[in-house]
Amino acid sequence: MRLEEEGKAEPLVSAVQGGSPGPSNGKRMNRVLLEQVAWLDGRRDEMLARLEKWCNVNSFTKNLDGLERMAALLIEAFRPLGGKLEVLETDGQENVDDRGEMVREPLGKLLRITCRAEVRPRVLLCIHMDTVYSLDDEFQACRWLDDERLNGPGVIDAKGGLVTMLYALLALEQSPLAGQIGWQVIINPDEEIGSPGSQRLLDEAARAADVGLLFEPSLPDGRLVSWRKGVGNFVFVVHGKSAHSGRDFSAGRNAVVAMSRLMLQIHGLNTDPEVTFNIGRVSGGGALNVVPDLAIGRVNVRVRTLEQQRLVEEKFRELTGAIQGDGIRASMHGGFTSPPKELIPGTAELQQRIEAAGALLGLPVSWHGSGGASDGNKFAAAGLPNIDSLGPAGGEIHSRNEFLLASSLVPRTKLAALVLLSMAEEQTAKSSVRA
Questions:
Q1: What's residue 29's pLDDT?
Q2: Where do the DSSP E strands lie in 129-275?
Q3: Which among 15, 106, 201, 426 is most buried, taking Cβ atoms within 10 Å?
Q4: For residue 425, how many other CB atoms are within 10 A of its CB?
């Protein structure tokens, strides 16, 4: 089942009395919904205090102990919402190590909360708890840069989104409309590395839902994200033949040289701004008097369309095959962890609903594409219409300058809450018509 909304962005809702909608009824219901999200007005300091507490816990993707501490705080915070709360094992991650061997690494646990699973529409709300800042990074705690900007690890990507999602649901659940929609929350521990361990659970959740709301940050200027590029991470392993560089140099086959040629060929593919190839890391070799027999190259790729994704995969297979021979062997691993997020049926209707909610709040909503991926890419690939940038505004993510604009926290939460409440009110109106 997929939620297909009717009508335009104005009015947000059309209350139905006596079987026919009317403008005055719509205005009345809009006023009622605004009164319900006004509950959030006095929560700013409470929300910021919770955010700082969460950001001061290191939840780097590979810091399993930190993720466990973060999960405990989230369970405490989300438990008052009710519903069925589960802590689920993820599938871990397969990766190529620096010896060129495939290894499996464990990842953190995923939180899932389900409320009124039998009620439609069913909304999937999702954001991650992991960050990119390791335990040995200097960036470990929050500080205020001024009255408006809170600087901290994950403050905008995406612990600010966690706070926004929590309080939007609290606003829904204290409303008499809450029983009209079902929802499921997914908080995963591995989005920053492409959600490899969460993929199965994310796909399962997406296929059971009608619409998705994700709480990645909005763009720095406040715009929401419409489309996203797809992301691929590839590992190339080249084997040669070792030999003494002085006594038997000609018997060797230099894997580092072969890898260098391959990486230069891949870098040379950067001819279209829509498709980018980043040589992220190359390793190999050892003692300088030995011809190296192993080299590993790691490449990140971004594409705009599924056709571009197909062409990249085809070209990489071609290049990998072309460097083999005369004692050189090569293999390719990895792939596209997130396909391009293109517009699918139902997305435009969800955008209209969000625009209408923004208009009611006096919060202009506009859209722009992004070169970064999110779990929204995966949800769209599963057929779930979703908007994935409903978190607060800020900037300079993945850096020690990461900041949140404090003034955006309550308005963005109101926006998400109003979207949820409008869906619930719409179901109430439909029920009254059927009655």
A1: 65
A2: 143-144, 149-151, 182-188, 211-214, 224-228, 230-239
A3: 426
A4: 23
